[in-house]
Design brief:
Layout (H helix, E strand, L loop, with lengths): L20 E4 L4 E3 L6 E8 L2 E12 L6 E6 L4 E5 L7 E10 L3 E9 L5 E3 L2 E3 L7 E4 L2 E6 L2
Antiparallel strand pairs: 1-12, 2-9, 3-8, 4-7, 4-9, 4-12, 5-6, 5-8, 10-11
Length: 143
């Protein structure tokens, strides 16, 4: 059976006992409105205690601050605003859920100068070769 997709077309995976749940951004997302959060990847988690990690790679247009949050659409579990706009945000939280819940990583920039939330990262060597997922979320069940 194929994995379901969220409203942004990102693939999501359902939780299975004792397994991690992961999702990667599948569509390069334009961050065009200042202080507006754009959803990155999300995971659907069963009730329980979870360690959730997320990473976002943003290519800001010009000098701007970038921010990220890990949340369920209402409750924010973690936020980050790097000191400089290098474009990478890491988020982490231990979350206890009472019901099945969608957890997502969302990102914004402060200038609205059309930065992008990236799908893959390059090798940094000038070739532009993709080396792996750049924006992702993973959840691991904990005791």
């Amino acid at each position: 059976m194929a994995n379901p997709v969220d409203s942004n077309g990102n693939r999501i995976r359902l939780w299975l006992p004792n397994q991690s749940v992961t999702a990667n951004l599948t569509v390069r997302t334009t961050l065009s409105v200042a202080y507006t959060f754009y959803d990155g990847p999300s995971v659907i988690l069963a009730p329980g205690k979870w360690l959730v990690l997320a990473h976002g790679l943003i290519t800001p247009a010009g000098s701007t601050a970038i921010v990220g949050k890990l949340w369920d659409g209402a409750n924010v579990f973690a936020t980050s605003e790097p000191y400089n706009a290098l474009g990478e945000i890491n988020l982490a939280a231990i979350i206890t859920l009472l019901t099945q819940t969608t957890i997502k990583a969302s990102y914004a920039e402060t200038s609205g100068t059309t930065g992008h939330l990236e799908i893959t990262s390059s090798d940094g060597g000038g070739s532009g070769s993709a080396v792996g997922p750049a924006t992702w979320i993973v959840a691991v069940p904990t005791l």
